[in-house]
Design goal:
Strand order of the largest sheet: 1-2-4-3
Oligomer: single chain
Number of domains: 2
Number of helices: 10
CATH topology of the largest domain: Transferase(Phosphotransferase), domain 1
CATH class of the largest domain: Mainly Alpha
């Protein structure tokens, strides 16, 4: 019997599904409409992700307006697509990461607007929570994520929304999931990659138990693989973001939300970071130790 993955043309399909698993998947797809749903079956755990119609949030529209007015390409939001196009884009990007040698969730089925994926195991965010009493082990995951992000960039890819909740471990290697955002479709690749770094350092600066030590270590890990063009673009991005800092600090005096605090912390670090310390890119193959 052909697998659902084979019938749908889904990439990296699992082995054939058992009849009872097919019945459970079909039942879940018909009876529920949650965007992300966990499906615990007797033999394994699966995840269902549905691509629903999205209304562009007001702040995303304003972000696009600011990008146009101030000529800041890194602010351009990813295109808002119909559910079918969102699904196709996410599967295409998942395929690209898998082809480049990075672990990704395995698809067992994909319809026009829903995909069923095998469980990839705990995310790095979950691993970090489990070792939070050990500051060194906790922050080592942040450094490991930065190093893997450098490999992604060396492979000519960008993640779009890098966060430890979207990273996982597969035999010790960092894997990636959740490829909804595709900033490289609306800006140069090096700009999308520099944007990745800024977004990831929103996480590093706020999650690190020892930020004074972990932030430089994470940057060094990324720099070992980062393309020269992306390092240059990151310097430009950090410089531009630094011009927004006075306004951000002023707003923070009235209301210092968590997102604003992370932006201030990450920008302050990156604008002072020695981004020239590694002038020759590491040529190690993506997904492999260099």
């Amino acid at each position: 019997m052909a697998s659902l993955a084979e019938r749908s043309g889904a990439p990296m399909g699992e082995r054939d599904l058992h009849d009872d698993e097919i019945a459970e998947i079909v039942r879940a797809l018909v009876e529920s409409d949650g965007r992300v749903q966990r499906l615990d079956l007797p033999r394994r755990r699966l995840w269902i992700k549905r691509q629903g119609s999205k209304v562009m949030p007001v702040f995303v529209a304003l972000q696009g307006l600011a990008a146009a007015l101030f000529r800041l390409p890194f602010l351009r939001p990813s295109p808002q697509l119909a559910p079918e196009a969102m699904q196709a884009r996410e599967i295409e990007r998942l395929r690209a990461f898998g082809k480049a040698g990075f672990p990704v969730p395995r698809l067992v089925y994909a319809s026009a607007t829903a995909m069923v994926m095998a469980d990839a195991g705990p995310t790095i965010a979950e691993h970090m929570r489990r070792v939070r009493a050990d500051a060194g082990a906790h922050d080592a995951f942040l450094v490991k994520g930065a190093e893997a992000l450098g490999r992604v960039h060396a492979a000519g890819l960008s993640h779009g929304r890098p966060h430890v909740r979207d990273f996982f471990l597969a035999d010790g290697a960092v894997g990636f999931m959740d490829f909804e955002e595709d900033p490289a479709s609306v800006m140069p690749l090096e700009t999308a990659q520099a944007r990745d770094v800024l977004l990831y350092f929103l996480v590093v600066t706020s999650f690190a138990a020892s930020p004074d030590k972990t932030c430089p270590a994470a940057l060094d890990a990324w720099l070992r693989h980062a393309p020269v063009a992306t390092r240059r673009e990151l310097r430009t991005l950090a410089s531009v973001a630094s011009r927004i800092l006075p306004l951000a600090r002023l707003i923070g005096r009235v209301h210092m939300g968590s997102d604003l605090r992370r932006f201030i912390m990450a920008t302050e670090f990156l604008m002072q970071a020695p981004l020239d310390r590694a002038e020759s890119p590491n040529t190690a193959k993506a997904g492999q130790d260099g």
